[in-house]
Amino acid sequence: MRAGGLDIGSRTVKFVVIEDGRTVLARKALTSHDPLEAARTLIAGIQYDVIVATGYGRHLLKEHLDCPVISEIKAFALGAKAIHAPCRVILDIGGQDTKAICLNESGEMAKFEMNDKCAAGTGRFLEIMANALNYTLEEFPKAALSAEHAEKINSMCTVFAESEVISLTARGASRSDVALGIHKAIVSRSTALLKRIAPSGEVFFAGGVALNECIRALIAEDLNRPVVVPPDPQGVGAFGAALHAQKVGAATGGNNETVLR
Amino acid sequence: MSRTVEPLINDEYTGGPPTKRVLAHLQEKRRTGMKIAGVYCGYAPTELILAMGIAPATLCAFSNATIEAAETVLPANLCPLIKSSYGFIITDTCPFYGLSDAVIGETTCDGKKKMFELITDLKPTWIMDLPQVPDQEEAVANWAAMIRKLQRFLETTFGAHATDDAIEAAIRDINRRNAMMREVFEFPAGRPTVVGWQEIYDLTFLAQGSSGKEMEPILAEALWKLEQRRDNGYAYRPADTPRVMVTGCPVGGDAEKVFRIIEEAGGVIVALDACSGFKPYMTDTAEGTGDPVRALAERYLKIPCSCMTPNARRLTEMTRLIEKFRPDAVIDIVLQACHSFNIESHKVGEHVGRYHGLPFLKIVTDFSLSDVEQVRTRVEALLESC
Q1: From A57, which residue of chain B is nearest by alpha-carbon distance?
Q2: Are both A220 and A104 inside the same structural domain?
Q3: Which residue of A has its CA nearest to B385?
Q4: Which CATH architecture fits B18-164?
Q5: How many Å apart are CA B22 and CA B38, to the nearest integer?
Q6: Does residue A22 belong to any structural domain of this protein?
Q7: Who among B353, B371, B385 is closest to A117 (CB)?
């Protein structure tokens, strides 16, 4: 049985197909202004027997494709546990959300915390700040890692922080020092959220922001706890949804393959 | 609903906002010449107001529409309930405020206190100084003195009077009302529940400013219908639906979005632990004490609002509710910038998790629709863990 998981995030749509628990296909596309079209393109021509949706666009998809949906919190819990069996604590920093998830002994979600409703300290925040400093997303962490010291960023509001960055550069602060300051600001906010529900133990770090090597290094340094980053941190939610689809498929014995209208 | 049943209150207002029904009742009272006192909070002593022949009217506080006007004066980073209340007044869109001859407020929180200062010159307004360390021995005497002062204010403003015997009679009448309300709450305590949050909420909203005598026929009919539903095997939601207890700040109007999200996410709300829900009906006032005002002071100081410190009663009351309503999860609704409920949420979460082993979720929200999807994700994740 081929089970598909579709994670429609605020910035990126991820699609994973698994067969016997093993990933046979993983694709991504930008969510854009038309998440449904992005999802449609992503799954076009791919063979699957059963599919489950997660992420912010999950209900939108449900209206067009009669498939079960699960919250991204459950999807990340399922995915993380399957990728890294001892996993008890998950930090997911995505496009507009930061989530800290705590699992119990049997791998079920026990507690979770999410950031406030604004995108402060998320992937979107990083994108806007990179843009304000005229870095590409690839250059941004490298520049931060090369910095001598960090310029402190006090505001976590995306709009205010952008003004702060502009005034720092106007005062002649080094671009890379400001870059490091921005990375540190995101890390202290995320680790504070994490410590609220999981004060100790290894951390499984996922979501698009886990692709940023500077954030990864700073998180490990700030927490002083082992941090595990999976090979495809962005795809953990879609993988978790696919695992759930596999379970749904096994339970119904049939397939819910449907055409995306 | 598995099949349609007759609404608990079946009148021309059924299905609409509960405010319309209450407004019609108040307009009727107004026509008979009754004076009306606008109230904002559960600490306003209903028994005294009723004993003086005055009708209490809960003033509007739950609409996002009036917040923009309020923010021309008030800071944006303030509790939406206070902003909305003030916005209703300056835009003259709260019919209850329009009907009120006077307004009664309490010093529950800083935001309300300072907002009241901005409206005192519009109508006769009386602010009651609420003791906030309720277990200190002076607290009851001080609050009793404040109730007496309110009585004198209502005497001077309306020429209304009440003997202690009349206050005692009002206490007995409201105790009767509360007892009947608690009989109603027995039904969502059942599994499966035969009633949803909306119908329970409508009753709690209507009863708030009403006497026992007014509520008796309405509640008797509602109780009869609830018994019918139960005896006919009706289920509002299937028995295996996750049961949710909602606690925290008062919720109504635009904040009901959270209640709707809980139902859309596949949960059923079985207990409303807030001043906009069960709280006003859970404690009775002692009868026949010879000092009815002191008895009222004692009863009102037992309301477990987060403005009190310490507020251990909130947790003991919550345990009582959890044991009775057997929820599968607890959701604490905190209105943005309500510091006392927001901070207290930590204790509530620990209590719910450690003592009752139930999943817990705090939702900080306002009256706008901007966070609906974020709230939905949190609620769905919570219910998935039930």
Answers
A1: B373
A2: yes
A3: A109
A4: 3-Layer(aba) Sandwich (3.40)
A5: 13
A6: yes
A7: B371
